[in-house]
């Protein structure tokens, strides 16, 4: 079976009626890139940058981050690499951040909320990302967004970083900007948000948690933590429609994107991109190549 799938390496991810799907892979560190290439993903749809912060006893420097982002961009040789900015807090605790203990960490001080509060940390990461953009095809994605206002704050900081780099004569490329859609607020605001960014990537792990009000970390609730819940599927449909209205492409980078029992549903909804663990890439390519969207 694996052998049959291997024959799909080098083939396009395209439906029988000609819709190309961007089939990308998720990674959590540089060492995962090997598997991305071995499974012939067309790009990286989610690079969780947290590992840079988790594996150390203090903040990673701009230079350290730059080297990592540049290495991944170069290894992918021009293919798209979507790097998500820092998403710590809740399940991902980093001691040296000295975060206070919280009653509700999943709804707490985390991810983009930390970045917009501690802009020194955020700017360091953005500088490293923009510097690396000169060496490949990098896009940036922001986690846990709930409002247009946040996106405007981010864009202002990005403009400051670009102006600084320009002034210092440091080269960089233009970078596609996207957001994770993983809160119900972002879903409900998706039409307005689509006017602000280039793409959406739906984080079904958190979107399920926040929509169903079920802690994704609580094993006691595993049996009812259901990403197939109609509320979640309707949200995905809504995000695709609102994204497309404003010219955003829309992908899924949560675990649900790899669920073959839903691939046809996602294609029918108009999903443009799926980003999954490298080991699922070829099985999804097989499934997508056998679908005729017009017949669904
Ligand atoms: C998600 O929430 O679906 C997601 C992709 O991000 P993470 O699992 O890293 O929270
Ligand atoms: Mg998430």
Automatic annotation (TrEMBL):
Q: Which cofactor does it need?
A: Mg(2+)
Residues in PEP-utilising enzyme C-terminal domain copies: 6-292
Please name the top-level EC class of this enzyme: transferase
Its domain of life? Answer: Bacteria
Q: Where in the cell is it found?
A: Cytoplasm
Residues at which Mg(2+) binds: 182, 206
Q: What is its EC number?
A: 2.7.3.9
Q: Which reaction(s) does its UniProt entry say it catalyses?
A: L-histidyl-[protein] + phosphoenolpyruvate = N(pros)-phospho-L-histidyl-[protein] + pyruvate
- Keyword field contains DNA-binding: no
Please explain the role this protein plays, according to its UniProt record.
Answer: General (non sugar-specific) component of the phosphoenolpyruvate-dependent sugar phosphotransferase system (sugar PTS). This major carbohydrate active-transport system catalyzes the phosphorylation of incoming sugar substrates concomitantly with their translocation across the cell membrane. Enzyme I transfers the phosphoryl group from phosphoenolpyruvate (PEP) to the phosphoryl carrier protein (HPr).
Protein name (record): Phosphoenolpyruvate-protein phosphotransferase
Tell me the organism. Answer: Anaerocolumna cellulosilytica
The stretch of the full-length protein covered here is: 258 to 553 of 553
């Amino acid at each position: 079976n694996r052998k049959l799938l291997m024959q799909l390496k080098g083939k396009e991810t395209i439906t029988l009626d000609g819709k190309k799907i961007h089939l990308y892979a998720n990674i959590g560190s540089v060492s995962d890139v090997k598997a991305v290439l071995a499974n012939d993903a067309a790009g990286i749809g989610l690079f969780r940058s947290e590992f840079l912060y988790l594996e150390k006893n203090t903040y990673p420097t701009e230079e350290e981050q730059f080297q990592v982002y540049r290495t991944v961009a170069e290894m992918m040789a021009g293919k798209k690499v979507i790097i998500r900015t820092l998403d710590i807090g809740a399940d991902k605790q980093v001691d040296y951040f000295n975060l206070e203990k919280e009653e509700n960490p999943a709804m707490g001080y985390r991810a983009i909320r930390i970045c917009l509060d501690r802009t020194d940390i955020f700017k360091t990461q953005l500088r490293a990302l923009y510097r690396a953009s000169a060496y490949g095809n990098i896009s940036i994605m922001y986690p846990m967004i709930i409002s247009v206002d946040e996106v405007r704050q981010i864009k202002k900081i990005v403009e400051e970083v670009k102006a600084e780099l320009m002034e210092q004569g440091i080269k960089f490329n233009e970078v596609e900007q996207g957001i994770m859609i993983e809160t119900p607020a972002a879903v409900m605001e998706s039409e307005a948000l689509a006017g602000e960014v280039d793409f959406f990537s739906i984080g079904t792990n958190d979107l399920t948690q926040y929509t169903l009000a079920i802690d994704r970390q609580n094993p006691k609730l595993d049996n009812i933590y259901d990403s197939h819940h109609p509320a979640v599927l309707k949200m995905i449909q809504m995000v695709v429609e609102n994204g497309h209205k404003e010219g955003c492409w829309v992908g899924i980078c949560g675990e649900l994107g790899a669920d073959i029992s839903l691939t046809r549903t996602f294609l029918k909804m108009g999903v443009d991109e799926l980003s999954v663990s490298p080991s699922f890439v070829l099985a999804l390519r097989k499934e997508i190549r056998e679908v005729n969207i017009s017949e669904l």
